[in-house]
Amino acid sequence: MPGSALNQFGVTVVAANAYTLPGINTLGISLARIDYLPYGLNAPHTNPRESEILVVLEGMLYVGFVTSTSAPNVKNRLFSKILHPGDVFVFPMGLIHFQLNVGKTKAIAFAAFSSQLPGLNIIPNALFGSHPPINDDILAKAFQVDKKVVDYIQSEFERDNF
């Protein structure tokens, strides 16, 4: 069943994992239904314990992931595509990835994971909404912005109770 996507991102995830469906415990698999409002964003995040395969059932999604680097002077590379119903995309374990509904109607996708209990680390929430907060000097230097910008973003995360 769909969940409510009436939130700041316009996306909701309903999971079938070892907590919600104990019968899959120890099988190394899980599934999620993802509902996107028009222009809804599944924000940049990582799945630290599993790879993901996404299939679009309805709507149109712009999806992508960014590679990691292991050599000097090698840039992170974005792999992205616009998906239509029936299209499939794979997100490798641990890499930052996202999905954006680029259509004017809702979108629905199913994601399968290679873990019975997938992990999730939403990048903006982790960096700007951690408790206690990451020192703003660190974030200002990392993003090469003024500390006032970091303070503002952190205050937005406090306000929205992420």
TrEMBL record:
SMART domains: Cupin_1. The keyword Cell membrane does not apply. Residues 9-151 form the Cupin type-1 domain. One of its GO terms (cellular component) is apoplast. CDD domains: cupin_OxOx (cd02241). It is found in: Secreted, Extracellular space, Apoplast. Oxalate binds at N42, E52. InterPro entries: Cupin_1 (IPR006045), Germin (IPR001929), RmlC-like_jellyroll (IPR014710), RmlC_Cupin_sf (IPR011051). Transmembrane segments: none annotated. One of its GO terms (molecular function) is manganese ion binding. Belongs to the germin family. PANTHER family: GERMIN-LIKE PROTEIN SUBFAMILY 3 MEMBER 3. This is Germin-like protein. The lineage of its organism: Eukaryota, Viridiplantae, Streptophyta, Embryophyta, Tracheophyta.
